[in-house]
Amino acid sequence: MHFVDAKGILSSNNDINIYRGCTHGCIYCDSRSTCYGFTHEFEDIEVKRNAPELLEKALRSKRKKCMIGTGAMCDPYLHAEEKLRLTRRCLELINQYEYGVTVRTKSTRVLRDLELFQSIHHKTKAVVQMTMTTYDEELCKIIEPNVSTTRERFNALMQLKKAGIPTIVWLTPILPFINDTEENIRGILDYCIEAEVKGIICFEMGVTLREGDREYFYKALDKHFPGVKNQYIKTYGNAYELPSPESETLWKIFQKTCKENGIMYRAEECFQYLHEFPEKYEQMSMFDI
Q: Model-level pTM greater than 0.85?
């Protein structure tokens, strides 16, 4: 872990990344790709120590309230967050300045800040996004070794539901020849139904690989799934998009289940919901005058 003073924190899309790199160890992580220009080891977390100060300056200068997002590139609830608490400090500022927030994570550490999400959601809007890829707990520990298991994430979703915080699940990636089974998809969907998630984001039943990510992934396949790397090379060559051979069947199950249970499943609809800043707070303020 090393610390830097960032020049800016809020992107043009109103996203923030407090950390750069990750310690979760997921074997498929796209953020390892060389196109992102990491100049340090991926597990050597770059910490933007001045993130809260930069965020406060940005929020004070914005002319219009909006949703602030974090977690698109690197998880805001890494192991380092337990002591550094930079994500929490940023949430406190979002709450103070009455913006909305959405966070994307695989960690149950998100529950530490439950009362902050409730406060933000009472004023404007707070949404927690949780990635879930693998229903089988033992397989999950191989694919995503240093983070909360899927069952633990499901329990977090249930606590968020009880607290009145809306949730979105990312059902991605689905790894060909590994977790691309009907049992896996139905298991995760059952979790989503019970947790009453608002939507599920799934671009396709497959995975993407590119330079940097591919090499790490293939090394993990050789270690944990002997022979599967050769299946990938034979089936996909050097392709970027690797759809599961079971993609069509699994996609039909996904769509049908979501429709039957009133869950948003079109990615554009989910993204629209995540970016929409509610007008209810302004309306409430007008009536209170």
A: yes
